[in-house]
Amino acid sequence: MSEGQPFRLAVGGAIDRSRPLRFTWSGRTYTGYAGDTLASALIANGVKVVGRSFKYHRPRGLIAAGVEESNALVQLGEGARSTPNIRATEVELYEGLVARPVNCWPSAEFDVGGVINLASRFLIAGFYYKTFMWPSWHLFEGLIRRMAGLGKVAPEADPDRYEDRFAHFDVVVIGAGPAGLTAALAAAAVGRRVALVEQDCLLGGSLLQDSAIIDGLDGDAWIAAARETLAAAGVTILTRTVATGYFDCNALALLEGLDPGRHGAGRPRYRLWQVRAGRVILATGAIERPLVFSGNDRPGVMLAGAVRHYVRRFAALPGRRFLVFANNDDAWRTAEALADAGAQVVAVVDTRRDLPPDCVSRMAAREIPVFAGAAVIETNGYKRLRSARVRHATGQVTDIACDGIAMSGGFSPTIHLFGQAGGKLRYDKDLAAFVPATCPQAAVCVGSAAGRFDLADLLENARAAGEGRPATKPARVAFGIQPAWQIGGSGKAFVDFQNDVTAQDIALSARESFRSVEHLKRYTTLGMAPDQGKTSNVNALAIMADETGRTVAETGTTRFRFPYTPMPLASFAGRARGELFRPLRRMPGHARHQALGAVFEDIGGYLRPIGYPQAGESRHDTEQREAAAVRAGAGLFEGSPLGKLEVVGRDAGAFLDRIYANRVSNLALGKIRYGLMLNELGIIIDDGVVTRLAEDCFLVSTTSGGADRIAAWLEEWLQCEWVDLDVVVAPVTTAWGVLTLTGPHARAILEAVGTSIDISRASFPHMSFRKGEIAGMSARIHRVSFTGELSYEVAVASSRVPLLWDSLIAAGRNRGIVPVGLDAWMVLRTEKGYLHVGGDTDGTTTPLNVGWDHVLKKASDFVGRRSLTLPHNRQEDRLQLVGLAADDGKILPIGAHMLDAAGRSQGYVTSSHFSPTLGHGVALGMLNGGARRIGETVTLRTLKGLERVRVAPLCAYDPAGDRLNG
Amino acid sequence: MADLRFSLTRHGVTVERLAPERVVVIRVRNSAAAAVARVEEVLGEMLPTTPNAAGAHHGGSICWLSPGEWMVVGEGIDVSALTAAIAPATGHVADIGEGRVRYRIEGDFAAYVLTKGTSLDLAAALSEGRCAQTLFAQILVLLAPYGAGYEMTADISYAHYLETWFEDATREFVEGAFAS
């Protein structure tokens, strides 16, 4: 026996005794070896209790060796890396590993919550539903929430990196046991692009515990040769990778664990693969079932295959005096493995009366007593198994001292992914298990996942699957089994260890008419949580079948859902965190704004300056200063994201007449018109200006957020509805950068930088367009305004924006120019009563809500017109956009509702600011019948109480437009 | 300008932002045959009609974008000659080089880096003579093979985002730390 590892065998196992690893479990330091899992290292160190059960806080030991482990849920790691509910059987040991059990305090050995077990006879299925109904669930909720739940999530941000990628393969083989390896070899041999996916860190599957000769080689040699052949053929071999999801069109989710114990320092922890496969071969193996007998959760009671796995692969002995309890031949191999490893096998207890003679003689050779037609009906011990009470075929009952029971109730093919793929199952009586039947996707099960346990048979079948040939022969029966779903006994007989569901709970569920397997699951919590019923599903529904007088097949199974095993949420996010969470666009002048200390926000997907604060300014101060500066001198604003679509063709005018609610085709050359675009429901989807560049060419400006959306909208109408129209649409948005110069000094500044265009008021009036040179750059200029001041929107080649910015700022320095952010921009347009689509409008706003009743008189048809004629849209008291002013001049809260005498809403505030120029608050809002109520005073409900506001005209500043046209 | 340069070298992969080039998108309504022929004459190359086909053009490239729509990259493209060639058919020549950014991704892990951003099967979609417009790292890009590597064309407003993305995506490509 090894130093400090009293249950470690001196020889054997796939562990490296020259590389000891220290780890901390529940505060104590232990040593294991490279090649161990946390579970095998705990077994080697003689740790029996690894956790407490979920509901009753009963002491629990390891039951399994793989993903199906339902007891040993651990909190792994410390601090920000602390991760709850990791199965100890899936954790590769590494130097310095720190873990502790979940669901117990202060330790698994001594757990205060264990007192709950004393009251366990009251904690029956549906306990919560029955007990906490009166007087109110909420009275108990807080306490129960604190007591419930498994593990703790680290409150810090996850410091690790998570990678993701896509991949395509002709064939994906999931599971690298003998069947999976054979299928992968066969697929690679016929030239397919193959991926082989294995959840373990080693290839081999069952060969890691059971010796076999394949192709004349022993298991280890055959695995090594297979690996070499696959690598040479370019097969992608993914170990430590769990296939967690199987979706439509052969899409798979694979979670690859990376660098156990070495993540951090920029190394990724997991990689999520999204894979599209031509064919999927599921070699996922089978999961052994427990036997359901009283006291079957005592630490020391384990699945027989798992016991063999620990002994053979890890040279770790789960006990020294074992009793084997089974209903099938397979478990007998565990008796041999234990005996060969030097453990004492006190008895083989088999529920079958007739035992296969060869099994019996193998035991006789090792002098192991065999009891046929017998069963373990009770176990003794608390934190450690002391003895098993056996009822013999004669009815006689004896206690047999033992510290371990290796149990086997048979095997359930791991058909979870097959089920996710939409596969249908069939109950196989010979195997006492559900096996895959048909699947709508290109998926096939091989090996024990297909119910094939005979080595020669499964290898031949897997080879055919790998080559893409159908399976020819039905599965050969490999071992004898006789179902023994319920053994009976006086105490709790557990079915679902993780959720503490007993055979008695299932019987109760049946008596209370929760008989459907889906009801059973919800009522008892069976098959929930991380475990998802890996060991319990088939036992549970067989017991339900018993209780309700149905066959197992009639009782059916629950649906298998993604994910097969729990996945870290961070693996879904992958690298899409922080700056990469969402792609943000930058404007051509970004560096200039940055240099000026702009504060940026995500507006319509662009990082845009909301303001350029000076030292000591609040956001409001900045907004007010910038807005006032525009009215007094000049402001410079970058509007590059404004959508720019060139619409050309003989029918361009006619097309735009249909797209805009107002008329476009009669626009004079070089003139600009403001327009609204509606959808078929008459709802405003965008606004902007349209410019006639030539007889057959228009430039459509969309809102900044609408550039891509409106381009697609125009294409949809052209390609699907009006294919006869002679029109082509060309989006050119980002080729041009736009700087808007606005304010009473705008013309002087433009003259100062030099321009080839006559920009005098008479020759370049408001709402017109010119092309020419500005500051030596070729430019397109719109004389339009969103501020109410004299404004020029100057578009130049994107890359020239910084130069133009510098020129305009330099020329404006003595004329009071300031850079202007969107905050001030919104103040200025609200003073003017200009509509902000998406701010003042929502998904119900039509032109008839914003004073555009005249569109109904338009001679030609347009998108949305018919909807506008609906009576609802034309009601006299419909919402109408109006100006609002508080008597005392304060800023009205956006979203506050105006109330009628009965306290019902009659509208709400949509935009609101303080006007530095006017010295009072200016606001816009939607008000029932508002257009005819200018001058009225209405009541506004705010968080502070009721306020009186005056209904005003939309435009609060320069209503005559003298400055605009200046 | 400094922020127009981007060059990234990691173990097995380089990503380089290409110097600005002329990029035009030619649109010919209904692929009017006579207009297409005149455009081809101006270009001195055939315009591919197979979806997602790509060809060469005087050291640059021509990519099929959609029916009657092509992107041509390269120096010496005469926009006004092309515009004139389309008439009297309806069409448009958009000179959009100022609105695009182009990258070249090369090295043994070039394809691997791209699979972190796109769900396309690169071996099938980007074989010689093919191109693809696809969602890449949440944005629309055009991908085309270039020698043993790839060229990517994206909207210039995403340049900073894409460069940040490439920096991050290639972090694991460190000698010895990565082997597949």
CATH topology of the largest domain in chain A: FAD/NAD(P)-binding domain
Radius of gyration of chain A using CA atoms only: 38 Å
> How big a fraction of the residues of chain A is strand?
25-35%
CATH superfamily of the largest domain in chain B: Probable tRNA modification gtpase trme, domain 1
CATH C-level label of the largest domain in chain B? Alpha Beta
How is the main sheet of chain B built? 6 strands, antiparallel
The rough form of chain B would be described as elongated
Low-confidence segments of chain B, given as residue ranges, are none
Distance N to C terminus of chain B: 37 Å
State the domain count of chain A. Answer: 7
The percent of residues in helical segments of chain B reads 10-25%
Coarse structural class of chain A: alpha+beta
Q: What structural class results from the helix and strand content of chain B?
A: alpha+beta
CATH architectural group of the largest domain in chain A = 3-Layer(bba) Sandwich
Largest sheet of chain A: 7 strands, mixed
Work out the number of β strands of chain A. Answer: 49
Provide the CATH topology of the largest domain in chain B: Gyrase A, domain 2
Strand order of the largest sheet of chain B: 1-2-8-11-10-9
Mean pLDDT of chain A: 94
The CATH class assignment of the largest domain in chain A is Alpha Beta
